[in-house]
Every structure is written in structure tokens, then in C-alpha cells.
């Protein structure tokens, strides 16, 4: 599957002036105005799969109350154009009435939303219930920049267990309506490199922590030290046993998101700096060896690029070459994604400053003119589509 996506993050952030505001990337990049054009652009580029999510905070109005008007419009158009959607139900934020990821009621209400969604759109089979659980928990409860804006280990564990539980309950709810549904779990693939021997213990802990949401989601036993960490920071044994007994591993594809910013040099005092050393092949192989699930490359772009009209096609080729090497080395690959369709805004400050900065990460610009990355991706699809299909697995 050759895919792209509509960037649909909508966290609540604290701005430099101290005010809190929800940042909606679909609004900032003009998708609410140009969605018909955007979907036609996907077809023009020869792409057959679209990662897409209607905004949860605009759709789930209250317990048992939903506004499906926008969802029916856009998903009807996607279906008419013959595109295959992978539905993001939650992308870094919740409705105001639910508060944030510290709310223990979030999993219950989110699973109700997932079931209602599946009933509204029974033809949809591919879902990513909660996008990047690790990033959502880390940015909201460990780095203190989104949603609850907390900075503690206990808050991080609380957010993680609620996100993972909500993800599992949502998958079960969807399966109760559509037993043929599959789940492409888009998750950030990270690695922490120790800066020196004094940082090895910190790096080892962080490299266990990066797996935590997927360990819970797939029912993989954590290490003894990680279990102690969870218990010391508020997870009960009953809560942990839920994940051992109720996981969605058998109906899942492991989606790996990789950017140059996903690798970090870590120091003994916990400080980190971004770096790129291993690359997609090495890190994805680590995740595959741990979970042994089919893999889809679910996000990438040249986030650290300088001369982006040159860097984006080069980055695309690097990621594709890594993916082909993984396939040749026996990793079951089902697809690749350049994320996103159009340029983004203010991601250089992780959405925490509204500077109106256009981030040239898209296959097209905000005027919907195809960028060199789009031309390169279209050419790659034409060149490789027939050759790779015979070696890839099917979701049917």
C-alpha cells in the first residue's frame, strides 16, 4: 500500500503568553476548505491509501452525542474516489468535556465513540484507533507541552495506561460491529543513544520506555525493572493484568513512524538532543524482533531538511531503500507512507507557538501545488507498484 495522510493533530497547548488553546492542523493548513481538492490530489499522485481522521473534538460532542455531518461528507468522497482510508480516531487530543489523558473515564467514552463510528461507516475496515500513544503521553505528561501539560513519571504512566486501554477497548468495540476490521497501529519508533558511560542507565530506561505503549497494547510482558517502575508510579497489578489478558496483537499491523528527530542522544542528567545515527532499518528491525507483526511504514518526511526541494526526494529514497532492505531480509512489509499530503504549520515548535511558519513537509504546498517530494513519490509509485506487490502480504 502506498499511502499519504492529512495531518490532523489537535492538542491543547500552552502558548508563550500563558493562554491555552487547541491547535487544529486541519484548520491551519486549509483542509476544511479544500478537502475535495485534497482528495483529488491524492488520486493525481497515484496514491491508493489515505491516513485520515475526522476531528474527535468536533465529532464527539458529549456522552452519546455525535455530529457526523463532516464525517459523512468527507468519507463519502473518499469512498467515491476509490481511496482506502486508514482511520485515525484520536490524534493527540480529546474533546474539552473529557479534559485530557489523565481522565480515567477516557477509555470508556472513547470505546463508545469507536463503536458509534463503526456503525456509521461499516464499509471501513482499517483503523489506527489512537495515533502515536507514546508521543501523546510523552508530550502531554512528561514534557508538559500538550493537553494536561504535566511533567512527572506518574502522570506519564497514567496517560500511557489510559491511552493503551482506550486503544484496546476501541478495537474490541469496532470488531463487535465489523469482525473483519484490522488495526494499523501508527507508533513513533524511537531510540536513545547514551552520550557517555554515565548515561547508559538513563538510556537503557528510556529505551524500555519507548516500547511501553506497544507492550501494553500487544500483551508483551515488560521487564522486571519496568514493572517496578509502573507500580511505583501508580499502575496497579489489576490494571497491568488487563493488558496481559486483553490485547489486540492478533488483528494488528505494527505501524512505524520514523523521522530524523526520532533518535536522541541522552546525557546522565536526562537531557536529550536530536540525532540521526541508526536510521529506519535498524530501529524498525528492533521493533519487529520484539513484536513479530507485519509492518507498515506509517509516517516520514524530511523534518530536518534545509534545502527541502532537494532534501525531500533524497530522504524519500533513503526511507524506501531501508524498507526494501527490510523486506529482503524477511520482515513482512505491507506499505509505505509519506506524511503528509500538504505542508504543515508550526510543527517546528511542536505546535506550541503560533508563528504562521510553513513547514515544507508535504507532497504539495498549501496552495496545493505539487512539490518535488510529490513528483518523486509519484515516480516511485509508478516504478515500484508492480514489482513489490508479489512480495508483500495481504490484509484480507
From TrEMBL:
GO MF terms, alphabetically ordered: hydrolase activity, hydrolyzing O-glycosyl compounds
Where does the chain cross the membrane? none
State the UniProt keywords alphabetically.
Hydrolase
What are the BP-aspect GO terms?
Answer: carbohydrate metabolic process
Signal peptide per UniProt: none
**Sorted alphabetically, which Pfam families does this protein's record hold?**
Glyco_hydro_1 (PF00232)
Q: Does the keyword Hydrolase apply?
A: yes
Q: Has UniProt tagged this entry with the keyword Hydrolase? A: yes
**PANTHER family, sorted:** ALPHA-L-IDURONIDASE (PTHR12631), BETA-XYLOSIDASE-LIKE PROTEIN-RELATED (PTHR12631:SF10)
Protein name stated in the entry = Glycoside hydrolase family 1
From what organism does this protein derive? Massilia eurypsychrophila
